[in-house]
Design brief:
The chain has 283 residues and is of the alpha/beta class. 34% of the residues lie in helices and 19% in strands. The chain has helices spanning 3-10, 14-17, 56-64, 67-71, 78-86, 99-115, 142-148, 168-176, 217-227, 229-235, 269-278, and strands spanning 26-29, 44-47, 96-97, 136-137, 153-154, 161-162, 180-188, 198-208, 242-250, 255-263. Strands 5, 6, 7, 8, 9 and 10 form a six-stranded mixed β-sheet that branches. A two-stranded antiparallel sheet has the order 1-2. Strand 3, helix 6 (99-115) and strand 4 form a beta-alpha-beta unit.
Amino acid sequence: MHLSCLLLLLSLGARAGAFDLGQTTRCVPVPAQMSVCQDVPYSEMRLPNLLGHTSLDEAVPRSEDWRTLLHTGCHPQARAFVCSLVAPVCLDRFIQPCRSVCMAVKESCAPVLACQGHAWPEALDCERFPAQDDTCLTPLPKHISAFSKEFPQPVCQSCPSVEEAPSLKTVLDALCLSQFAVKVKISRRRFPSSEPELTVEGPVEFLQRGPLLPYDTASLLQRWLLINLRCAHTLARPGRAQLYLLTGTMRPGGAIQISALFPALKKDLHITAAARKWKHHKC
């Protein structure tokens, strides 16, 4: 489901912003169908929840509207933040996210929403949550959050050029202007599922590794696709996997910039020739 669905849900959030923490609630098992919250360390949730959903018939499909955002990995506490709202733990009182958690998630995830043309929802105004204390969901230790930022990260960007049937010179020039170059197969699901809509299939082949980490590159590129959905939808056709030669650079601060994509069709011998000549090519 697209991120626009998430914003449609939260456009109804006036009632969420005015949610009465003192109202009568009931405890119910966290259903298996609520896939985004299957890893929470508890088995029962409160209804109504903190977004005002009064039944599982309402809460379960609305929870799925968050799935694409969470798959982007925009913040290490995004899932805990979302689940504290849609599936709050069943204790003697509500455990809300701390204001500092909301602000941290907003700082990292609002740019993902902006990439889709949407603002951070008013229903999730961080001022509605309590200041950090022992009665709310606290943020991760700073050293853990800082550690995750040391790795290359996908960000929203203008769509890179896509060149079909490029000349040998065009491909070699693109390689010369890039810090990394990989061959990667991208597929797009035809129907909604609990898995990401766009997926990097199989191993990534490195022509030039540059700043990329071998064990994280497939995940990095998949998150780039989910953040830059409008670009990605022009690349991958539903139900069909396509091999691409992808080139790019890393900005100061670790943000990955994809520069060019070349569909690596079997009949296109120039990409194959460029990959072979690149080992000995002088820019």
